[in-house]
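Bit of a strange request maybe. I'm writing a small parser for structure token strings and I need a real example to test against, not something I typed by hand. Could someone generate the tokens for this chain?
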Amino acid sequence: MGTLGNTASSTGYASFNLYGQMCGKVTMPVGGTVTKIAGRFDGDGGGSGTVYYKLSLWRADGANARPGTFLRATSEITVAYSGATTAWYEADLTSPVAITAADYWLVCSSNVGATWPRLMKDDATGIYSWCTGTAGNYADPSSASWETGWGGLSNVSYLCIYATYEIPFTGLTVTHRVG
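Reply from user aminoacidic:
Good idea to test on real output. This should exercise your parser:
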């Protein structure tokens, strides 16, 4: 089992503000099957109620290597506006998806364009970006448009979001010799 993305337990944060989605570009080193995606969120922002998130996996085959082909989304993640401890929130994909060694985007979609809760980030090398538009992309992450309202490619902040994958077992033969 392996991870794809940023697993750091960082204390920096990226606020959604008016952005319905944020994403991080990652490189899958080998083929495998992605089963889960996790994001690190906090609820230190004040206000009350909850925010709902979905995390999704996209191929980096769109214009200018932006997200192009939607692959899968997770089930819903619920984070409290106030008082939620900074923690990893992991969710299963709707069904596992096999991917090859290539570039991908891990995307976090919110049901509101709100500052709180926040998706955590650190300043490691990586690409972090956002897509404006509406929070309506939350209900159906596959409907996101990545060709307008794109920003942040020069930002080197790296979102705390990662996928868990399994590498298929192939080609091992065990021979037992007696005597």
